[in-house]
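Lecture 7 notes: from sequence to structure.

We start with a single chain of 183 residues. Read the sequence below before looking at the structure.
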Amino acid sequence: MSQLLILAAEQENPLIPPIPELVIGLIAFVIVFGFLAKKLLPNINKVLDERREAIEGGIEKAEAAQTEAQSVLEQYKAQLAEARHEAARLRQEAQEQGATLIAEMRAEGQRQREEIIAAGHSQIEADRKAASQALRQDVGKLATDLAGKLVGESLEDHARQSRVIDRFLDGLDEAATKAEATR
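Now the structure, written as tokens:
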């Protein structure tokens, strides 16, 4: 430094400042730097740390949210697949029950139809017998009256009347049977 002083004393170089200014500038720089290091730098570091933590926390939260969303999506897909499977099973059961119900209804309808037909046949048979009986009585009465007029005597005796009617109707039945056999 002594050489520097000697040089400075010998010449006044505009690039080299005088020593008292240099010392005052250096002291001012240390004071400002000390103030910045003590007051401003911790605040700046604190803000930067908070930002870094917020960013890292945000990233972690986003990753956690994405993981949770992925798991919820998987659960949703599983539930959807299960619901579709259940719906298909219920649809199949309904179709089977419908087919069974239709078969039962057809069987019931067939049974009822057979009952109605059997009841109709028995009713027709009963009506035929009743009509045949009424016809026998009417034909018998007419035949008895006619026979009585032809013979010239009354055939009022009931037993005799029944025998005559039965013979007459049996003859008619035989004639009808022979006519059907020849066809």
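The chain has a mean pLDDT of 83. Keep this in mind for problem set 3.
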